[in-house]
Design brief:
It is a single chain. The chain has 253 residues and is α+β, with helices and mostly antiparallel strands. The chain has 2 domains: 118 residues, no CATH class; 99 residues, no CATH class. Helices cover 22% and strands 48% of the residues. Strands 5, 6, 7, 8, 9, 10, 11, 12, 13, 14, 15 and 16 form a 12-stranded antiparallel beta sheet that branches. It has a 4-stranded antiparallel beta sheet with strand order 1-2-3-4, with no helix packed on it. The longest helix is centred in the middle third of the chain and has 16 residues. The protein is globular. The relative contact order is 0.15.
Length: 253
């Protein structure tokens, strides 16, 4: 059974937030990477276009294609976007009965070139995004370590929250200079106007923030490029927002 994350009457499971037993919002997770070596967009398109690693499995009398593939590749002004699809068989149990059900998970992605750097945006939770990034690295370069996490400097996150003081609701600090303390956190309204904020910023570095970056767009953001949209947003809108608002915060820009 998957664990629930409990915080202030909110239960979070997968990408659904449940409040008092009612689904109120879909949370969209994403992560940004960059490519170490220069690879042309045409080369990426050629290598991903025909990527398919599948097999046929049977459930009862019906056959299903199981495995991984890249679909819907499309050139953009500064890169390439598409969908990574993974299909597999899931086992379920209801009382004494067992069922096998085919399941497909799709992940939107985009390669985006800016200021000479090539970024990879994956609309997926951390573990899945890391796995797909490693797979793409292997497909594109034959090496697993050529697609890496971006870094957003702590100082950049500090400037961001200090310019949106009233819109900032959560801050986590790491690298804390206190024995036995790994992380510190602040929650609430006007947290930047507190003495605790001044103390924590002096003895630690900002690791994670939650703030309203634009009207009705609330995001969580970490130094290693994990973005969580807590507001309702379409995949295409999320990709555009990341390109316009988040990637410029990277230390590579």
């Amino acid at each position: 059974m998957k664990k629930f994350l409990f915080s202030r009457n909110y239960f979070v499971k997968e990408t659904i937030i449940i409040y008092k037993e009612k689904i109120i919002i879909m949370v969209l997770a994403s992560k940004i990477f960059y490519l170490k070596e220069h690879i042309g967009i045409n080369t990426i398109a050629a290598k991903l276009k025909d990527y398919r690693l599948t097999e046929i499995q049977q459930i009862d009398d019906k056959e299903y294609e199981i495995g991984k593939s890249v679909t819907s590749l499309e050139a953009t002004d500064n890169g390439l976007k598409g969908v990574f699809e993974e299909s597999f068989i899931v086992d379920f149990k209801y009382r004494d009965e067992e069922f096998k059900i085919p399941l497909s998970i799709t992940t939107y992605f985009e390669f985006y070139r800016k200021n000479g750097n090539l970024f990879l945006i994956l609309l997926a939770k951390k573990e899945r995004a890391n796995r797909i990034a490693t797979l793409f690295s292997t497909v594109l370069t034959a090496e697993k370590n050529q697609i890496l996490e971006i870094e957003i400097p702590s100082e950049t996150l500090q400037k961001l929250v200090e310019t949106r003081r009233e819109q900032t609701k959560v801050i986590f600090f790491d690298n804390v200079k206190l024995p036995g303390v790994e992380k510190l956190s602040l929650y609430g309204s006007n947290i930047l106007d507190t003495n605790l904020y001044q103390e924590y910023i002096r003895i630690g570095k900002i690791w994670y923030i939650v703030l309203e970056m634009e009207e009705n767009i609330v995001v969580g953001l970490t130094r290693n490029g994990i973005i969580t949209f807590f507001s309702k947003i379409l995949e295409e809108e999320a990709l555009d927002f990341i390109k316009e608002k988040i990637i410029p915060l990277s230390s590579l820009i």
